[in-house]
Specification:
GO terms for molecular function: transaldolase activity. This is Transaldolase. Pathway: Carbohydrate degradation; pentose phosphate pathway; D-glyceraldehyde 3-phosphate and beta-D-fructose 6-phosphate from D-ribose 5-phosphate and D-xylulose 5-phosphate (non-oxidative stage): step 2/3. Helix content is 58%, strand content 11%. It has 380 residues and is α/β, with parallel strands linked by helices. The chain has an eight-stranded parallel beta barrel with strand order 1-2-3-4-5-6-7-8, surrounded by nine helices.
């Protein structure tokens, strides 16, 4: 480890670093415990792509798969048993963080099946079942911030379930998410139940926005020259961070509202903005730009392992989530100029649709690879 761990500096500025990765190897080797102690990792997020990578080529799961086969479980039931086990163990490892932070951090996120992203009732039913079966106070259920997902978020919060609202791209989606959280807390408070133990994060995606907009800008650049070409180049790699900074301004307005203040007086925790999709896709950009530019109070950044390593080594830490906000407003407004001609609403809508597909595909792929493994082990 380097002499200065920049992740520990980030923590002093009010941001928590969570890791976007989970596997049984990490748990059983003691590496996860070590990362919490030495690197300052304060939570974990998982998704089907992460579990596919963990389970597919790894013999550490074979004994449990064989037990599932003997018990006559379906492939999906075996998958659930494996992942629920990993989530429970990770929750137990993070429990001291959860207790020391008074329920602010120490969460482990698991996503409900992406196949039901457009079905409110099924999403809520699965969120309740996951929460009950995993049975840990520091598990967080991931629900997509889709038009169908948000009513499920509201009801899950009212039921006392911690929720990670995922797949947020537009500021409008984030604002709707924040109010869904508030309505859920209000319903719970009206029923006379404690709201001080519930936590939620709003996962706002970053690098996918820049990747998509940069592709559109590159297409425009093929026909552009002179001043227009300069303007297009100036926008590249800038939109996701600007968009996130404006979302943070909306967060500040929401927590100043009377409705939020009334809940805060009853012990409610703020729903923190979580920066997700933070590994830089373009090699021309800094590998830690989605960390450096968005450090600030009441936020979380969830990083894949390679970005954690890069950040420990060379993050340039300062509280920047509220710097250059006017420039961010100007940049977002400029996208509709004829010279740039990017329809941000359309981009965000497409990203949401693609985002659901990006969760469904690895989930299906995971079930296929697990089925192949089940068949192989059943034949032995």
């Amino acid at each position: 480890m380097t002499a200065t761990n920049h992740i520990l500096e980030i923590e002093t500025l009010g941001q928590s670093i969570w890791m976007d990765n989970l596997s049984r190897d990490l748990i059983e080797s003691g590496e996860l415990k070590q990362m919490i102690a030495e690197q300052g990792i304060q939570g974990i997020t998982s998704n089907p792509a992460i579990f596919e990578k963990a389970i597919a080529g790894n013999a550490v799961y074979d004994a449990d798969i064989e037990a599932g086969i003997k018990a006559g479980k379906s492939v999906e039931e075996i998958y659930e048993a494996l992942t629920f086990d990993d989530i429970r163990h990770a929750c137990d490892i993070f429990l001291p963080v959860y207790e020391q932070s008074n329920g602010l951090d120490g969460y482990v996120s698991i996503e409900v099946s992406p196949r039901i992203a457009k079905d409110t009732e099924a999403t809520l039913r699965e969120a309740r079942r996951y929460y009950a079966e995993i049975g840990r106070p520091n598990v967080m259920i991931k629900i997509p911030g889709t038009p169908a997902g948000l009513p499920a978020v509201e009801k899950a919060i009212a039921a006392g379930i911690n929720v990670n609202v995922t797949l947020l791209f537009s500021i409008e989606s984030y604002v709707e998410t924040a109010w869904a959280y508030i309505r859920g807390l209000e319903a719970r408070a009206e029923a006379g139940q404690d709201i001080s133990k519930i936590a939620s994060v709003a996962s706002f995606f970053l690098s996918r926005i820049d990747s998509k907009i940069d592709d559109a800008l590159d297409a425009h650049l093929q026909q552009a020259s002179g001043k227009q070409a300069e303007r297009l180049k100036q926008v590249k790699g800038k939109v996701a961070i600007a968009n996130a900074k404006l979302a943070y301004q909306e967060y500040k307005k929401i927590i100043q509202s009377e409705r939020w203040q009334a809940l805060a007086a009853k012990g409610a925790k703020v729903q923190r903005l979580l920066w997700a999709s933070t590994s830089t896709k373009n090699p021309d950009y800094s590998d830690v730009m989605y960390v450096d530019e968005l450090v600030g109070p009441d936020t979380v950044n969830t990083l894949p392992p390679n970005t954690i390593t890069a950040c420990i080594d060379h993050c340039d830490v300062a509280s920047r989530v509220e710097t250059d906000v006017n420039e961010a407003y100007q940049l977002i407004a400029s996208l509709s100029d004829p010279d740039i001609n990017i329809n941000l609403d359309q981009v965000m809508a497409e990203l949401l649709e693609e985002g659901i597909d990006k969760f469904v595909q690895p989930f299906e792929s995971l079930l296929h690879s697990l089925e192949a493994k089940v068949n192989r082990l059943a034949a032995v």
